[in-house]
Amino acid sequence: MTLWPRSLVGRNALLIVALIVLAEIGSAVLVRQLIVKPRVEQIAEAVARNVASMRAGIAVLPPAEREAFLAAFTKRAGIGLATVEPSAPGTATRLSAVDRLFIRSVSAHLAADDMDVIWRRDDNSMSLRLRIDGQGYWLALPSVLPEREFTGAWFAASATAALLALAGALAIQRRIDRPLRALVEAARTLGGGARPEPLPEDGPAEIATVSRSFNQLVRSLDAAERERTLMLAGISHDLRTPLTKLRLGVEILRDGADADLAASLTRSIAELDAIVGQFLDFARGDDLSAIPALPASLETLAREVVASFADHGEPLELEAVPAPPIPMRVELVRRTVTNLVENALRHGRAPVALRTGRDARWAWIEVADAGEGIAAADIEAVKQPFRRAGAARHGASGAGLGLAIVERIARSHGGALELLPVAPHGLRARLRLPLASER
What we know:
CATH class of the largest domain: Alpha Beta
Oligomer: single chain
Largest sheet: 5 strands, mixed
CATH superfamily of the largest domain: Histidine kinase-like ATPase, C-terminal domain
Number of strands: 10
Order of helices and strands: HHHHEEEHHHEHEEHEEHEE
Number of helices: 10
Radius of gyration: 46 Å
Structural class: alpha+beta
């Protein structure tokens, strides 16, 4: 587990907080070095001069009057008279960093005047001991520095500034994050095969440029798709006429031609006709969602498909689970299942089974075969138009549009096409449909 956030918002927030904390620390260091320390030095120099003057004044007084003078001085200054000497080990523990700086500075100035003093921190003052004629006198000084270098107000002000800066930064980040989320959703919609709504092209220049570029990409893809669809429809339409002539010619020559040759020509024409049909189905695919979805049973549809293939001498195994009707475009789903069965018969191996099932959210119908299957790395690729599984599947090759059409029909229902392996070998092509209409 890492403490570094994965989201852009989290990373920016953490970076902003770190920068604010570093700025506050830097400000504190600058205040100490440029304001506090020079002032302490200035105060220490003045105090050292006053202490030297006091010592000179006390020295000229008779010894009997010195204590009375110190008592009157401390009373006049509003502080108590220091009479008890502190123990040396406990003195430094009560001093703040500013106190220690002040004491070192005053002591350095007094040492220059050949004065060696001992300090003590009292509750409301600092005291130093002067030695005059071999006798020690405690001189209490009024507080000239705060007892704490940084007060609660300073921390409160720093915390408030940090929170305000963080709130402002998060508000700015939110303005950036909103169009980015819209871009992610649009890209996900585009990747799912649907056309996303155009992104707003306002806001900051950088975000507007990204949105404009994405909208241009969508328009370019739409134009390319329309051109390809128009081309497929034109080619398919043009091929139907010569295919019809070829079929008619084979029927005319069937009696006088070699039977095997005629059968081979008939199969080839049928394959070409099936490919042309796939082209036409793919070209008409954009209007699938316009067909209304009506309640129908996958079990009933599966039995009808099995019966249809049995009539053509292609027996299928059936494992149908009774289930209530779900909304679907029946003819499209029938075409999809038929396409999957034909793929299994053409590219896989017997036995070919047709199964239905459901869970809490989805109903499904699948076609399973015992062929070589499809490599995991090729599963998503073979769903794309004009892509084939290569050497992993045997049999006659088509146009590479069958699974692309199945995928498109599944998405038009709000479902999906899943290609799943079968142990020890084989493939399950599962059409998954929602129990409730999502489109």
